[in-house]
Write a structure and sequence with these properties.
alpha+beta; eight-stranded mixed sheet; 18 strands
Length: 432
């Protein structure tokens, strides 16, 4: 390729209609940077996003969107009808996490809230949902201002309880697509900030992106008594401990090498005192995979192994299993992802690339599966570019504070601008 041809392509990309629209109607980001800091300073736990949802709702109403609140809890939508054409839904999640922040930021959270178990816990936006909300608020203003350039219906959706992986289903069950007067979306679009990529970067690929997940609560039973006389007891802590170790062999010995499967015990509770053998022990597991057949095998194997350990120890009654959280695999539509990839490549040029599947989970795709329409989910880079370059040079990207860690702190710019542009560009790609 000649230098002149490369220059011509670069000029053509810079002169795309989408770039002109976004550059012309991009709002002043100072307001959204302040909004982001405010949201970061005041995170809210899942199913308690009252303040965050109010901020988003008031903003959409001030722009001229028709706003509907309290859908599936604190979920809300802003609807902008702009003549005949496709309907595009843009989604952002709102909830924070029970994490004690350790970023050192001057706008760090010091907030505490009561969780669903009645415990007071620290709260932090340790997964970047404050970024998601700020970017969608900004994109909503851009697209409203640019409404003379497109036709169709835009739906801006702010979702609660993603960290419980049940907020999307709660909104669907509460009549998201039946109670409110807007056309069924033709496509559902969303993004997630990660510090695995540098700020200003967009990553996206067709096919599976995130894993299916089930959360499983297990109770194993024993026979309680005095800690000095274990021979008169059946110790459920020992039973549960053996089960936890044995569960790790499911992936290593029952799955085909190279196939993703994750079984993690993240919670183990039993007993009240050192000299008392309790009557039961509780476990909470997270189970993840990309394939339906493998997922079923993992869940079946968990029950088989736990039951066998209980039988082997003479447990007085069968274990109990409660499945309390589920999300399907997020799968980017093959054809529509290629369409959006073309727009992203032209707009972001060298700052875009593929997104490998990862075993984290999302309930984003529930919003599309419920009405059988395609969806696309992409990664938004959030790491300070200089820090990312240095870590990459040393081969130490894994040492950067990642999502759900106390040090997770996306750099404000160019993260917000890139996230706003990506949402606006994606919407314009599929609107008329």
């Amino acid at each position: 390729m000649t230098r002149r041809l490369r220059a011509s392509i670069a000029v053509a990309r810079r002169e795309t209609p989408y770039r002109k629209i976004i550059d012309q109607y991009r709002p002043n980001l100072a307001f959204y940077e302040a909004t982001y800091k405010d949201l970061h300073r005041h995170p809210e736990l899942s199913e308690q996003e009252k303040r965050t949802s109010s901020i988003a709702a008031e903003h959409l109403q001030s722009l001229g969107y028709h706003v509907h609140q309290h859908i599936g809890g604190y979920g809300l939508i802003g609807v902008l009808k702009n003549g005949p054409g496709p309907t595009v839904l843009l989604r952002a999640d709102m909830d924070g996490l029970p994490v004690l922040e350790n970023t050192g930021l001057d706008y760090a959270s010091r907030k505490k809230m009561e969780d669903t178990d009645g415990n007071e816990v620290p709260v932090m936006h340790a997964c970047g949902h404050d970024v998601h909300v700020s970017c969608l608020m900004a994109a909503a203003e851009l697209l409203y201002a640019a409404r003379s350039t497109w036709k169709g219906t835009l739906v801006c959706l702010f979702q609660p309880a993603e960290e419980f992986v049940k907020g999307a289903q709660a909104m669907v069950d509460d009549g998201l697509y039946t109670k409110y007067n807007f056309p069924k979306p033709d496509i559902v679009l969303g993004q997630h900030v990660f510090c695995l990529w540098k700020a200003g970067w967009i990553a996206m690929s067709p096919g599976p992106i995130t894993a299916a997940v089930d959360a499983v609560r297990v109770r194993v039973f024993g026979k309680g008594g005095h800690g000095s006389s274990p021979h008169y007891c059946i110790d459920p802590i020992v039973i549960a401990s053996h089960a936890i170790v044995r569960l790790q062999t499911i992936v290593s010995r029952e799955l085909q090498p190279g196939k993703l499967g994750v079984i993690t015990c993240g919670k183990f509770q039993a007993g009240t005192a050192s000299n008392i053998i309790p009557d039961y022990a509780d476990l909470e597991l997270t189970v993840r995979s990309y394939e339906t057949k493998i997922h079923k095998h993992l869940l079946d194997a968990i029950e088989r192994i736990v039951k066998a350990e209980c039988d082997a120890s003479g447990s007085p009654q069968p274990p109990e299993f409660t499945y309390f959280s589920h999300a399907p695999t997020t799968v980017n539509d093959m054809d529509q992802t290629e369409v959006l990839k073309t727009s992203f490549s032209a707009y972001f040029e060298r700052n875009t690339g593929p997104m490998d599947p990862f075993p984290g989970s999302e309930d984003f795709s529930v919003l599309a599966r419920a009405i059988n329409v395609p969806s696309i989910f992409w990664a938004l880079g959030g790491c300070d570019p200089d820090k990312w370059d240095e870590a990459n040079r040393k081969g130490e990207l894994e040492k950067l504070p990642m999502n759900h860690s106390a040090g997770f702190a996306p750099v404000i710019e160019p993260t917000l601008r890139t996230g706003m542009d990506a949402l606006a560009l994606a919407a314009l790609t599929f609107l008329d």
